């Protein structure tokens, strides 16, 4: 398996890090919260709410990244090293995105998001 494919796995797992921060960084998570987790998450505030929002964004962007990696491999127009570098770059942006979201750095978070989306587009462009 290529490094880019491993990055897809990492991208799939990363939103669950945000989930863990949202749920478990407070004292109010327990069996009652698991009875209706969506209501529990909707009631969060501050850093935990931002972690939940980062989780949602991670679930939204991961399919596009996975498709870009798979299509880049199938198209075969780019070197494996370049595809791996773009995929690793995307993972770095996702980690930075989560950090920016938790720190409440909205403008920086948006910039990091655009960089990540640019890397997804780049996977398509370099393989064309």
From TrEMBL:
Chain segments annotated as transmembrane: 61-78, 85-104, 110-127
One Pfam family, short name: MAPEG
Keyword Hydrolase among UniProt keywords: no
UniProt keywords, alphabetically: Membrane, Transmembrane, Transmembrane helix
Main location: membrane
Subcellular localization, as worded in the UniProt entry: Membrane
InterPro entries in UniProt: MAPEG-like_dom_sf (IPR023352), Membr-assoc_MAPEG (IPR001129)
Superkingdom, natural source: Bacteria
Protein name listed in UniProt: MAPEG family protein
């Amino acid at each position: 398996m290529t490094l880019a494919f491993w990055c897809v796995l990492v991208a799939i797992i990363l939103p669950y890090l945000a989930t863990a921060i949202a749920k478990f960084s407070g004292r109010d998570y327990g069996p009652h919260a698991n009875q209706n987790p969506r209501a529990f998450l909707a009631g969060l505030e501050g850093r935990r709410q931002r972690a939940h929002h980062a989780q949602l964004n991670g679930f939204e962007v991961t399919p596009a990244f996975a498709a870009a990696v798979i299509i880049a491999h199938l198209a075969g127009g780019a070197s494996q090293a370049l595809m791996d570098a773009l995929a690793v770059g995307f993972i770095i942006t996702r980690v930075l995105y989560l950090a920016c979201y938790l720190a409440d750095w909205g403008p920086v978070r948006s910039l990091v998001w655009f960089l990540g989306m640019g890397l997804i587009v780049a996977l398509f462009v370099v393989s064309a």
